[in-house]
């Protein structure tokens, strides 16, 4: 998966670089003539965790992270656009205040459930508004499909996450540096949830012990980056 993402990023940079080279000789092209934008952001990922954990109870704990994010935007009109957002993040996972007295543990134990990568490609439909010629705020709403991969199970024998559809919203703004290049500030809220199954048979002396949980991650993403039109 990592190699696939790196290959995609390399291809995106190659083609956007080719577009830049072709457009560079056209000094008369106006801003509104560019139909595509590409942004590269640094993004803080701050999950808002909630869970319904079967058998052992307690609450879920998913850590914050900071990641690179790549997006492509296509303008159907001057104001209406669609944006595809690509990024992946790794999170450590655990439970807080779980009751594991049935397997010889405490009644308020914190459990290490390893880590997992999230890949939630998101398609946003946006409205852009030109406040001034150089300052362009926007808002959007859209859908995502979250893929969970490279799971590590921590103290459990195994752990699995179900891939799920979700939705989200965003708002932000672009500030032009030139007709082609700009800086960007962006805020997104994604609503992500998954069904988790923890195989804890290793803690139960080999007896079957599957612990189900419905987990809502619902991260807030705060990003800052640069972009170009092509």
UniProtKB/TrEMBL annotation:
Keywords: Signal. One of its GO terms (cellular component) is outer membrane. GO terms for biological process: transmembrane transport. InterPro entries: OMP/PagP_B-barrel, OMPW. Residues 1-21 form the signal peptide. The keyword Signal applies. Pfam families: OmpW. This is Outer membrane beta-barrel protein. It comes from Myroides pelagicus.
């Amino acid at each position: 998966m990592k190699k696939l993402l790196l290959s995609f990023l390399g291809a995106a940079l190659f083609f956007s670089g080719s577009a830049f080279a072709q457009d560079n000789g056209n000094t008369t092209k106006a801003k509104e003539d560019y139909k595509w934008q590409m942004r590269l952001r640094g993004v803080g990922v701050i999950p808002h965790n909630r869970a319904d954990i079967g058998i052992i109870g307690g609450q879920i704990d998913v850590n914050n992270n900071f990641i690179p994010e790549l997006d492509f935007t296509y303008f159907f009109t001057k104001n209406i656009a669609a944006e595809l957002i690509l990024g992946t993040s790794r999170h450590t996972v655990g439970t807080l205040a779980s009751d594991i007295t049935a397997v010889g543990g405490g009644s308020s134990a914190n459990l290490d459930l390893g880590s997992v990568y999230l890949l939630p490609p998101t398609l946003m439909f946006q409205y852009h508004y030109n406040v001034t010629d150089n300052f362009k705020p926007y808002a959007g709403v859209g859908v995502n499909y979250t893929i969970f991969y490279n799971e590590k199970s921590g103290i459990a024998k195994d752990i699995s996450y179900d891939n799920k559809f979700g939705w989200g919203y965003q708002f932000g703004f672009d500030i032009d540096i030139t007709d082609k290049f700009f800086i960007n500030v962006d805020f997104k809220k994604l609503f992500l949830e998954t069904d988790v199954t923890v195989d804890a048979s290793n803690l139960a002396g080999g007896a079957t012990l599957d612990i189900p949980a419905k987990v809502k991650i619902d991260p807030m993403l705060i990003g800052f980056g640069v972009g170009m039109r092509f």
